[in-house]
Design brief:
By secondary structure, this protein is α/β, with parallel strands linked by helices. The chain has two domains: 229 residues, Rossmann fold; 101 residues, Rna Polymerase Sigma Factor, Chain: A. It has twelve helices and nine strands. A seven-stranded mixed beta sheet has the order 1-5-2-6-7-8-9, with helices on both faces. It has a two-stranded parallel ribbon with strand order 3-4. Helix 10 links the parallel strand 8 and strand 9.
Length: 345
């Protein structure tokens, strides 16, 4: 087995008996930098509103550890990491990884750190998938599992959006069939990947949130009858799409979306019911009403199956939100009290 790295970040202080540890798992384009600010940074970690002193995950009380998944591009071993021992990037020689692999790599890290049990594992979207996978794969590792905006298996709607992104990347000449110079992309971006990311952003929002956010407002500097004049929503998609390609690696994007596509909590079992029989943690499931990417109904499937376990503490909460999938990153005030309660029950 070749050596690999898993990068992590911690917040708060671990108590003497290690009973206050919370693991936070990130989504597709997230990283280990979940909270706080780096020097010179104008934007905090991706869940900074949720993790910190006095926040839902209170670092005055809990010790939080957040890792970067393998396959990503923020320090953990991924497709553009140097391959041992020849030091050339893996590129396509990097193996297809699964959510299960990501979780196993984290579990090995925690063992190395002397962490053999945690108070809770919390995550949203792909982070929620990891939390659920932990519950099935390592049933005694966490007292509590809090998974939000996730699913028991990725459905065709989400796979279809990922296909648009994949095809857009692969057909961009500047991708060079995976043999691009990363410095060129940091400077110039990748148009195909930008198009794929635009499609992704559509799935992260909802009809209602787009209406509220943009309406039919037009760019002030564009004429309505200019062929390439833009509505505000078009400018938003372009800006976020093209900016994204300068800081996220396209091969990592392909590998991680593949992991999301093939995610199925029941893999290796005869059924989802059988997989969930492994769960021994208290389980708290959070869905969002207008999430189009991972429907509330999908989380409800897990909730209903766990509810039949008389000896297992489980709970389900549907957040009344019309924001869309990204509500778990944005509308924190709608579920932070629920998470606080779950952590202290």
């Amino acid at each position: 087995m070749e050596p690999y790295d898993v990068i992590y970040e911690t917040y708060g202080k671990m108590n003497d008996d290690k009973s206050n540890i919370i693991v936070v798992c990130h989504a597709l384009t997230g990283s280990h930098h979940a909270a706080g600010y780096y020097e010179g940074e104008h934007k905090g970690g991706w869940w900074d509103g949720f993790i910190g002193p006095g926040k839902a995950i209170d670092t005055d009380e809990f010790f939080v550890i957040s890792t970067n998944v393998i396959g990503s591009c923020f320090g953990s071993t991924g497709p553009m990491s140097r391959r041992y021992p020849d030091q050339e990037p893996y590129r396509y020689k990097f193996p297809v990884v699964t959510i299960k692999d990501m979780v196993k790599a984290q579990r090995i890290l925690f063992d190395r750190l002397g962490i053999h049990h945690v108070h809770a594992i919390v995550g949203g979207s792909m982070g929620g998938m990891q939390a659920l996978q932990f519950a099935v794969q390592f049933p005694k590792f966490a007292t509590k599992i809090i998974a939000m905006a996730a699913t028991y298996a990725t459905q065709p709607w989400a796979i279809a959006f990922n296909k648009v992104a994949q095809a857009s990347i692969l057909h961009d000449p500047e991708f060079k069939n995976g043999y691009y110079d990363p410095e060129d992309l940091h400077e110039n971006g990748l148009s195909g990947m930008a198009v794929g990311r635009m499609a992704g952003h559509i799935s992260f929002l909802s009809h209602y949130s787009m209406q509220k956010k943009f309406g039919r407002e037009y760019k002030l500097t564009d004429g309505l009858f200019e062929l390439f004049g833009k509505f505000q929503v078009e400018s938003y998609l372009e800006y976020n799409g093209y900016n994204f390609t300068k800081w996220f690696d396209p091969l990592s994007y392909l590998y991680i979306t593949k992991a999301i596509n093939i995610y199925d909590l029941s893999r290796g079992f005869d059924s989802l019911e059988q997989a969930l029989l492994n769960v021994q943690s208290e389980t708290y499931l959070i869905s969002f009403k207008e999430d189009m990417l991972f429907l509330s109904d999908e989380m409800k499937v897990i909730a209903d199956k766990l509810a039949g376990r008389k000896t297992l503490q489980s709970d389900y909460f549907e957040v009344d939100s019309n924001y869309g999938h990204d509500a778990f990153l944005v509308e924190l005030d709608k579920f932070d009290d629920y998470v606080k309660k779950a952590l202290h029950e």
